[in-house]
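pipeline stage [seq->struct] | target=C4-dicarboxylate ABC transporter substrate-binding protein | organism=Heyndrickxia shackletonii | residues=324
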Amino acid sequence: MKKILSLMIILLLILGTAGCTKASNKGVSTPNPEQKFITIATGDTSGPYFTIGEALAKVYKKKLHYKTAIQSTDGSVENIKLLENHKADLAFVMSDAASSVLNELGKLKDGSTQGFKAMAGLYPNYVQIVTLSANKIKSVSDLKGKRVGVGAPNSGVEANARIILNEQGITYNDIKPEYLSYEEAIEQLKSKKIDAAFVTSGLPNNAVLKLQSSKEVMIVPIKSSDINHLTKQFPFFEKSEIPAGVYQNKHPIPTVAIRNILLVRSDLSKNQVYKMTKIFFENLDVLQMAHQAANSINRIDAGKGLVVPLHPGAKKYFEELYDK
């Protein structure tokens, strides 16, 4: 009887040890596996973010055999939140929004770090203050007292609209701000519910082109003195112009531009982000066919001068590129 009891105890110990081993193995940290489902946060469906993001999703599906999803959003600020909350894996963002988030994290004392890194610098977004010729708005100062579409809530458009208005001493108390997406703003401009709208995007913006087909569109210029001050005060702004002919304009229109960045979740593996970066640039022609804004993406410069540090996987790609 004692022998049987002893054998039972030994057997229970063996089973218990095996169970503990399995449980402990679950807690062992292993390198991040390759994620096969990728969500790309873009922007308004009428803007370049969405169009280029849609083309990129197809590239990743074909070349890397990923399952992909495109998420239309209100833009940069929302996209960063989606990355940090693991609700997106890749996101199109304007440099000013990314810079602002990094600055805020730098002020925190709890050791917080950003949940995103840069994969590549992209094309510039141009500040386009859109109105109708009949509205007789010829300068930023003329927006005072007007109904102005300032961009969707949580968007990079809205963030830089505040900055540009402030350059003329204009606050939201001096205008009637309307928080609208590209399409909503252009539709309300067409129906005369607003007088002007900030549309910060790559060129051309499809919603503006659509408006131009039925109305006489005017893009409000930014004064050269304001441009010089803005670029000195805010390093993410670049002196730029909207070329002649983009919106049937006879002459270039002075404005500022903000570089776009493709961000990726920090915790994606080095190997996976390396592959994603490599495939992105090997298929750049596909993205350029999707939207002409992508023609301004320069592979050589894409890893330089970014406001967000490169992900180790992207850094590896650019190091190989520059060593060639």
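stage status: PASS
auto-comment: The chain has a mean pLDDT of 88. The chain is about 40% helix and 20% strand.
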